[in-house]
């Protein structure tokens, strides 16, 4: 049986982590396209993708929209974990759907984080009903991480705020080499609840992206990790 072919777009820390795990997860790497060969998505073509059946994209918020569009033009489904392009994502999603393409996006591909979001959402809803808790989100990442708050923290904030029924602020810490820690803090006068996810190795994000890429094979539409985890598929 032939193994599916994967393109890696972006060869930073996450791209290299995907590359390291690809063979273990049954992929053949068809192409690795880094930023130096890919101004405005121009380095992504059917030729440079070399028969890739899915691309995994971890770059920057400025580069991601052009990269996804280039994959769409080349007929290659794309899994993107890049954050910082929310303002353009709705338009890109429309183009993917109109072009009968496929994209799965998530601010975080850790299976644990995606479970954490759902647990935190339930906790925030129940705490909000009591009226006796204050809520706060704290996220900690390595010193080189560019966006603050992180995309994961912003997703948590959206979910938890809607469930809690009031605004939940976010505090960001950038220090050392921390892969990523996210915490929902629910504080009462006499007790405190902490819902925490702590990543020990960035390979956890690469593993989730590879699982999502395999799931995306043969599909059309726009998906998130919730679609992957629950099977409740809704395009967009």
**Element-by-element helix/strand order:** EHEHEHEHEHEHEEEHEH
Separation of the first and last Cα atoms: 33 Å
What are the low-pLDDT stretches, counting only 5+ consecutive residues below 50?
none
Rg to the nearest angstrom? 18 Å
CATH class of the largest domain: Alpha Beta
Assign the structural class, choosing from mainly alpha, mainly beta, alpha/beta, alpha+beta, or little secondary structure.
Answer: alpha/beta
Shape: elongated
Beta-strand proportion: 15-25%
CATH architecture heading of the largest domain: 3-Layer(aba) Sandwich
Helix content: 25-40%
Query: Biggest sheet, in brief?
Result: 6 strands, parallel
Question: What's the number of structural domains?
Answer: 2
Strand order of the largest sheet: 2-1-3-4-5-10
Instruction: Write out the CATH superfamily name of the largest domain.
Output: NAD(P)-binding Rossmann-like Domain
CATH topology-level fold name of the largest domain: Rossmann fold
**Rounded average pLDDT:** 93
Question: Helix tally?
Answer: 8
Number of strands: 10
Verbal overview:
The protein has 236 residues and is an alpha/beta fold. It folds into 2 domains: 5-105 and 203-230, 3-Layer(aba) Sandwich (Rossmann fold); 111-199, 2-Layer Sandwich (Dihydrodipicolinate Reductase, domain 2). 39% of the residues lie in helices and 23% in strands. It contains 8 helices and 10 strands. The protein has helices at residues 13-22, 46-49, 64-74, 86-98, 111-130, 151-164, 203-216, 225-230, and strands at residues 5-9, 28-33, 54-57, 78-80, 102-105, 134-141, 170-174, 180-187, 192-199, 221-223. Strands 2-1-3-4-5-10 form a 6-stranded parallel beta sheet, sandwiched between helices. A 4-stranded mixed beta sheet has the order 7-6-8-9, covered by helices on one side. Strand 1 (5-9), helix 1 (13-22) and strand 2 (28-33) form a beta-alpha-beta unit. Helix 1 crosses helix 7 (203-216) and helix 5 (111-130) packs parallel to helix 6 (151-164). The longest helix is centred in the middle third of the chain and has 20 residues, at 111-130. The mean pLDDT is 93.
């Amino acid at each position: 049986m032939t193994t599916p072919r994967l393109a890696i777009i972006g060869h930073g820390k996450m791209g290299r982590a995907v590359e390291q795990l690809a063979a273990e997860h049954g992929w053949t790497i068809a192409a690795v396209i880094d930023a130096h060969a890919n101004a405005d998505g121009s380095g992504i073509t059917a030729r440079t993708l070399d028969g890739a059946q899915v691309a995994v994209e971890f770059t920057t918020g400025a580069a991601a929209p052009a990269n996804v569009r280039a994959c769409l033009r080349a007929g290659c489904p794309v899994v993107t974990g890049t954050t910082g392009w929310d303002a353009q994502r709705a338009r890109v999603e429309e183009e993917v759907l109109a072009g009968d393409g496929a994209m799965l996006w998530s601010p975080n591909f850790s299976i644990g984080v995606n479970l954490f979001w759902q647990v935190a959402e339930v906790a925030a809803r129940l705490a909000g009903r009591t009226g006796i808790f204050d809520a706060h989100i704290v996220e900690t990442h390595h010193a080189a991480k560019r966006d603050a708050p992180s995309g994961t923290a912003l997703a948590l904030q959206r979910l938890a705020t809607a469930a809690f029924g009031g605004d939940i602020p976010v505090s960001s810490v950038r220090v050392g080499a921390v892969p990523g820690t996210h915490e929902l803090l629910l504080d009462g006068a006499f007790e405190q609840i902490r819902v925490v996810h702590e990543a020990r190795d960035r390979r956890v994000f690469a593993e989730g992206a590879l699982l999502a890429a395999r799931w995306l094979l043969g599909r059309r539409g726009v998906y998130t990790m919730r679609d992957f985890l629950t099977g409740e598929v809704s395009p967009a």
